[in-house]
Amino acid sequence: MSANEPFTIEQFYKFIQQGKLLAGKCLKCGKIHLPPRPLCDNCYSKEFEWVTVSGKGKLITYTVINIAPQQFQDLTPYAVGIIQLENGLKIPGMIQGITQEQLKIGMPLLLDFGSCSTPQKWPQWPRYCFKPS
Amino acid sequence: MKGKPLVNIVSAGMSKFGKHDGLLAREIFSQAASEAYSRCPKLEPKSDIKAMFIGHMGEAYEHQGHTGSAVADWAGLVGIPATRTEAACGSSGVALRSGIYAVLSGLADVVIVGGVEKMTHRTTAEVTEYLAMASDYPFEQWHGITFPGLFALMATAHMHAYGTTQEQMAQVAVKNHYHGSLNPKAHMQKEITLETVMTSRCVAWPLKLYDCSLITDGASCIILAKPELAAKYTDQPVQVVGSGQASDTIGLYERKSLTSLSATILAAKTAYEMADVRPEQISLAEVHDCFTFAELMAYEDLGLCKPGEGGKLVESGQTRLGGLIPINTSGGLKAKGHPVGATGTAQAYEVYLQLTNQAGKRQVKDAKIGLTHNVGGSGATAAVHIYRSSS
Predict the structure, then answer these.
(1) What are the chain A neighbours of B149 within 8 Å (beta carbons)?
(2) pTM over 0.90
């Protein structure tokens, strides 16, 4: 990675494809953006650097989706949650490898790149998920 | 201008909410416009109405964008500036706010604001997909998080933080279906039991089918006039005395709190201060019960009870017709229905009826001050308005 890569959501997902979880850190005020943004919402700086973020976190809330749009219907019921990572930032995602009864607020989870698949048309974003650690 | 009217409502109209097979959105809207025109015979729509703001969420439903002009056309108002406002389920709450901007700017002294949505011809899967478009695409929709899913995430967090129960959420549905049974324009006019809610199929745990608002067709509108002009049109205007609108992060996951909506809190603060009204002075409110849980959260965010006590408030019965502060006497989004773009001004329509003593079987006695609370998406938009009767 270099500072040349744009601080965009597209680039965030390119890194995910490579098995890397990276966020944009503002060089002026130090705020870390996950996902990255091209304009710091705190100080309006446009200067950032990529920082590696740990994929370890804990579950802060969850639901189990039973009624889904067409493209997710084969997966129902599936669990999704919001995970607070070790650096304090939050990120949503599917939770796999777990039953509804096992889901518990506060449980440790780990971001998993393994199940990523990339569709052929825009947006070519891989799908990460979370698994019990 | 604290406590003074910003604008006056001189008329209002609403189509029946429900299933309108064979009608397009603009045709449904013409029913609402027709009622508003008939209620106000002194108004000459073509010459008096100077601008239109129309809430409409989705082109996808009817393959029809550019709805402002399409609706103005079918309402017999071709020529006037017609603007569509879009803030998902908050689209017409924002239309109302925009109408107030127009009147206060001095550019228009009489304005029609409203909203419309035609949804029932689509499958549940299609509607689920279209509604989800109001949430963050790259991190929410992309990972299969639906609209009920977002409110379910908040409900789970609220249950964990405060011990709120699924039964308390279900009581919102029971209450609002009771209110809907008294509203001849409601989509659902039958009472339901707690058991019906609790045993209905799971949509997004802990939310079940009867925790969700309805997929509905409908339209609504109100006509606003500069306060000095209102007497020309009606001897029973309703004053809009407070208006607040606020935004929040598009992604739920970026917010500080998962158990309250910051946009609601901000919009309410603005509206209460402008109106010089305290929450305990409100006679009735129409709040955004897109899901039963959302009504409990609205009680808390609007200051009707303390954070975490929404469940207890519905249990107390005080938000039912006859209670201290009846909430969603129209039946709410839950029973009256939720044609998303039409909801904000349909809430204003109910408050207009209540404050002019025209609400029939569901009339709140001595209603003086009303409030509407309209939310867009998972809370990235909120619009709060406060109204006073002129009598």
Answers:
(1) 63, 65, 80
(2) yes
